[in-house]
Specification:
Number of domains of chain B: 2
Helix content of chain A: 40-55%
Strand content of chain A: 15-25%
Bound molecules: zinc ion
Order of helices and strands of chain B: HHHHHHHEEEHEEHEHHE
Strand order of the largest sheet of chain A: 2-1-4-3
CATH superfamily of the largest domain in chain B: Peptidyl-tRNA hydrolase
CATH topology of the largest domain in chain B: Rossmann fold
Number of strands of chain B: 7
CATH class of the largest domain in chain B: Alpha Beta
Helix content of chain B: 55-70%
Number of strands of chain A: 4
Number of helices of chain A: 2
Distance between the termini of chain B: 81 Å
Number of helices of chain B: 11
Largest sheet of chain B: 7 strands, mixed
Structural class of chain B: alpha/beta
Largest interface: A-B, 33 and 37 residues
Oligomer: heterodimer
Number of domains of chain A: 2
Chain lengths: ~120, ~375
């Protein structure tokens, strides 16, 4: 989290230098080639400025709120049923009847619903 | 070329080029003399940012604790001042200059702390039932830990700044990423504790719960239960903390009681616990070994090793790997799969190390929040 900030510092210094050069040659006159160089540098500075601004404005990505799910299983026929977690749920609480065979159901697991996993790029 | 000339103050040299040159020189000289100070200032800024984040996490945990206490405990008066006092409580560890017998002293202090914490929670949340009481205690402890982290980091930050002791600032800055990781882990735990969801550390109790699968259990020692079942033709005694409230219990004392007081003579003891994985290992991997698989401050492990040694009972350990963060966050699916693998591993150990009809004690170690028996 600290890394982009130090990059920002370098960018700010670079930006200041570029602006000084650009303004300097604008005020100090000079040939056409010099003017186009400083215009180019000025544009570069503006782009960096925009980039910095966007980065400052960008909110840190908020963590997606994971849903906690409760898995119910029938004691007799192994039917699985999934619902949202409610306060008071615990493993292996007996709760409700199986929709198939009317047998008793119990809570088998309670876990956060995972977003699809990304494979790591390098495998050591 | 022209730019370079300008910078060098050559032919096209103007007043601006001179200013630039002077500024450049001034920068180099300033960096030469004040480079270290600039560096320390950057470090301090980084620490400040983390410190603000830590304060945010601490305050959030505190708010959550107050809200949950009000919801579940329905206190008559405002619990806030009492909770604030709780967040500052401490434990003074026994002196270790003469370490003989220190385990029992520490154990005693931990007992006192636990009792007094339970008592405090009962006072601030009079209407909470036993399960919620335990969960609230866990929640308050997580808030206390976050508060502690915040206070310690702030202490070293301010001290380094005030005394200009760069070494302190440097050290703090260097270990800060690790501290933040721990703080974020506690932040994740707060939610789970408030809701009473099983956490990753509950892998051991979950395995015990699977093995017991609805059999009758008896209470033994403080917050521990055990039940009898059968596995691979062997009689097994399964031990776990009493759920579904957040509890780790005292497995060492419970084992002592089973063996010394009740006179059980198991052929082997198998302990199952969640263990911190190395970086790069998969969550939910299972491995086994020898010894007492139990974390914490060490008093329980000491007891277990003592009793196993006294009666020459082989101690086997099965661990389910997870990170620190996963250990106190809601239990992941991979850990459930790990528990299934661990059951198979326990069966293999029992088949290989004992004969049919033998007695085996299996202890599921960990926080049993959200997991009953
Ligand atoms: Zn069914």
């Amino acid at each position: 989290m600290a890394k982009p900030r130090s990059n920002n510092l370098i960018l700010i210094i670079l930006l200041a230098l570029l602006l000084i050069v650009a303004f300097g040659s604008l005020l100090g006159g000079g040939g056409a080639a010099e003017r186009s160089t400083s215009t180019l540098l000025g544009f570069l500075g503006l782009i960096i400025l925009l980039f910095l601004f966007l980065r400052l404005m960008a909110q840190p990505p908020s963590l997606p709120k994971t849903r906690i799910i409760t898995v119910l299983r029938c004691e007799k026929c192994n039917v699985k049923n999934i619902r949202e977690f409610r306060q008071g749920d615990y493993i292996p609480k007996r709760e409700g009847k199986c929709p198939g065979c009317e047998g008793p159901m119990y809570i088998e697991a309670i876990y956060p619903e995972e977003p699809p996993k990304k494979k790591p790029k390098f495998k050591f | 070329m022209s730019l370079l000339q300008q910078l060098m103050g050559g032919e096209g040299g103007s007043i601006w080029a001179i200013i630039l040159q002077v500024a450049f020189l001034a920068f180099i000289i300033a960096y030469f003399f004040y480079g270290q100070r600039i560096q320390v200032a950057i470090w301090n800024r980084d620490i400040e940012r983390s410190l603000r984040r830590l304060k945010l996490l601490r305050d959030r945990a505190r708010e959550k604790a107050i809200k949950t206490v009000k919801e579940l405990g329905k206190p008559e008066e405002d619990p806030t001042p009492r909770i604030d006092q709780f967040l500052e409580t401490f434990l003074i560890e026994p002196v270790n200059m003469d370490p003989a017998g220190i385990v029992w002293k520490l154990d005693h202090l931990l007992d006192v702390r636990d009792l007094s914490m339970k008592d405090t929670v009962r006072r601030i949340a009079p209407k909470a039932d036993e399960t919620n009481l335990n969960n609230l205690e866990n929640l308050l402890e997580a808030a206390l830990d976050l508060n502690q982290i915040y206070r310690i980091v702030r202490h070293y930050y301010l001290m380094g700044k005030r005394t200009n002791a760069y070494i302190i600032t440097a050290q703090l800055h260097m270990i800060l990423p690790l501290i933040m990781e721990i703080a974020y882990a506690y932040d994740g735990a707060v939610e789970a504790f408030a809701e009473g969801q099983p956490i990753g550390d509950g892998a051991g109790p979950l395995l015990a719960c699977r093995l017991l699968s609805g059999r009758e259990v008896k209470k033994i020692e403080k917050d521990m239960v055990y039940g009898e079942a059968e596995l691979e033709g062997r009689r097994i005694l399964v031990l776990k903390a009493e759920g579904p409230g957040g509890n780790v219990g005292k497995p060492g004392e419970a084992l002592e009681k089973l063996i010394d007081t009740y006179g059980y003579r198991p052929s082997i003891i198998v302990m199952v616990d969640a263990a911190q994985k190395f970086e790069g290992e998969e969550t939910g991997e299972v491995s086994d070994g020898v010894g007492a698989a139990i974390g914490g401050i060490g008093t329980e492990r000491f007891r277990i090793e003592e009793v196993a040694h006294k009666h020459k009972i082989p101690l086997y350990a099965v661990v389910i790997k997870e990170s620190l963060k996963e250990a106190i966050a809601p239990m992941k699916k991979e850990i459930y799969e790990g528990v299934n693998k661990a059951v198979e591993r326990v069966k293999r150990i029992i088949r290989e190390k004992t004969k049919e009809g033998d007695l085996v004690i299996i202890a599921g170690i960990g926080n049993t929040i959200g997991i009953a028996q």
